[in-house]
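Task 17 of the worksheet. Students: predict the tertiary structure of the chain below and write it out as structure tokens. Keep your answer in the requested format; marks are given for formatting as well as content.
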Amino acid sequence: MEYNNNALVLYNLLKNDGIINSVGKITFELAHTSVDISTTDTVGQSLQSWLKQYMLDKNIVFMEMDNTQEFPDFILDSIDKENNLLEVKAFNYNAGPGFDIANFESYCDFVRIKPYILNADYLIFGYSMTDAEIKIENIWIKKIWEISSSSGTHPLKVQDKRGIIYNIRPCKWYGTNNNRFPAFTSQEQFIKAIYNTLREYQHSRINADEWLSDLKMNYKKYYNKSLDV
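Model answer:
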């Protein structure tokens, strides 16, 4: 698997600096009173903010979107906004990956016209928390299909509430290889899973065949090769 060089540099730098098994905490201070936060609600955002400062300290070149809520979290480049895309995710290692990868229909809309987002890297922190102490148990660098799978209800594992699909959800890609629904092994499997989920999803405003046709056309324009789906 080929990952973006700049993402690999960051990933390896974190590992070499001993991020795994590192321990920290989140402290909030106001009016001369401080408190250590002992809930997991803000850990993900705090880790992303910490990573930004880490990259500044290490002189790693990066950009952020004007709207920080937009994809991706960081672009590990000073000019090119279509490569070296980095999303940062975090989850409670003891509970398993429960984060949202992306909003399902928003991702479908985005990837059909900007197929290069398929190649974004995902830097993932698995942490544990004891009282207010946060310990980094492991980190991973992954592509979106390597943390996605099918499920018992849809070709793509998603958050489904009363028949309405909201977000793409991750599978458990690490540990013993006895998962009923293992992670996809290729970009093509992931795209097929989106397509088949769109085909069966009655509430979607997106036509599955038109979506796949547009994606193939734009993929060919961007990469000058056909998408084998």
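Marker's comment: The chain has five helices and ten strands. The chain has one domain: 5-223.
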